[in-house]
Amino acid sequence: MDTNDWILKWIPSTYRPYFVLFGGVLTMMSLAIVYSFANMLPYLVSYLHFRVDESITAGSLIWIQTLLSGVPFSMLIGGIVEQSMGGRMAATIGCALYTGSIAFSSIIISISYGWLLVSFGFLPSFGSGIAYNAVLITAQRWFPGRIGFASGVIVAGFGCGTLFIAPLQTLYVNPDHYTTNSEGYFTQEDLLDRVPSLFLVMALFFTILQLIGLLLLASPIENPFEGEDEEDTVSLLPDSSRSSIGLKGMFFSSSFVFLFLTLFFSSCWVQITTGLYKAYGLQFISSDHFLSMVAAVSSIFNCGSRITWGWLADKSSYQKTMVMVSLMAAFLTWTLPLVKYSDSPILFLITICLLFTCVGGTYSLLPFVSSRLFGKEHFGVMYGLVQISLSMAGVISGLFGQYVLPYLGYDRLFLVTGFFPIISFVLTSLIHLTPLVTMRNISDSVVVTA
């Protein structure tokens, strides 16, 4: 593919798509603060509890996880800005807001938890949403016939960021391997003193990744879907084309509703488990460095699974792979309480890694099916609308963390949470019945042509 970009023009055309993927992966790695939040939570809650407000608990901080998981319309705005200004400019705007607000949080954390929700929750999430969608769309433009592969690699970058972020956090804040007290708080003064400057350290690391990644992020000038194979171009819409239906028709379609609700219920279990697993692990595992290692290793599974699930979806179908992801997620969430009673750190590591495999599947399969269903012309806007469900799920996870967790405890909370992916399983099993979806490329059974 050809391009007008002054950097990519120096790269042979055969390798340009892969350089763009590499730049996209670096950028997405820098945006992955949400998956390292569980690792940060004990440090943040300890600082806030002893230095700002004694009423703050681990359950209270789940609202930061809620905001980091998605702000309404940020990805929609990212899709719109990408269409009008290009992928690099849209991603640059998002990254600047994301990284700048994280750096500013080094000051805000000492003022109030409420303002920290804005500087470390709302603003980074808004910027991340803009950049995320811009990077994803740009990558798909370079791989029109391999959308599942491109989407999987890009979201894999988002998933593997914790591999580097979590160890960085722990080595900087807790180099002396301190342990928490009986209530789950760090009380050591020198550790607490390092918490505010952690935001500056992370912002510097993210800036380095973004400077390299954004330079390689540019769009091709030719039709990105030119030369697609038959499997990618076959219409998923019966009796009419996607273009004749338009955005309004897609938005009010039952297919959109099913995808929206699938992501909503899937995100509920993702946000609850990924936000609280370290605080839960501290109840029976005393080593903070071991739990940081769990966060790092699980990110490898998060990363690799996104590529694997995308590849499986390309080879089989969205429906078959998403059914597998949902059932695995329910089973693993229900087994988390058993891990505690086994008192085995290794079993905890294995369970969390497998859970993040399901996380990776969820967030690679939804953009895959959205691109297939809505087409390149409407993908940015429609997927941005689907992503609004993340914010709604965040409200549920926040309420669960602050009000349900103190009442039920971790064990029963995870038992309840396991029913969310079951609902996603039911929705996915029935999506082929929605009128905008033919069986081909979506269902795992009969292929029906439009």
UniProtKB/TrEMBL annotation:
Mode of membrane association: Multi-pass membrane protein
Keyword Coiled coil applies: no
Listed GO CC annotations: plasma membrane
UniProt keyword terms in alphabetical order: Membrane, Transmembrane, Transmembrane helix, Transport
Keyword check for Membrane: yes
GO MF terms held by the record: transmembrane transporter activity
Domain of life per record: Eukaryota
SUPFAM superfamilies, sorted: MFS general substrate transporter
Subcellular location field: Membrane
Protein name: Membrane transporter
Taxonomic source organism: Pristionchus pacificus
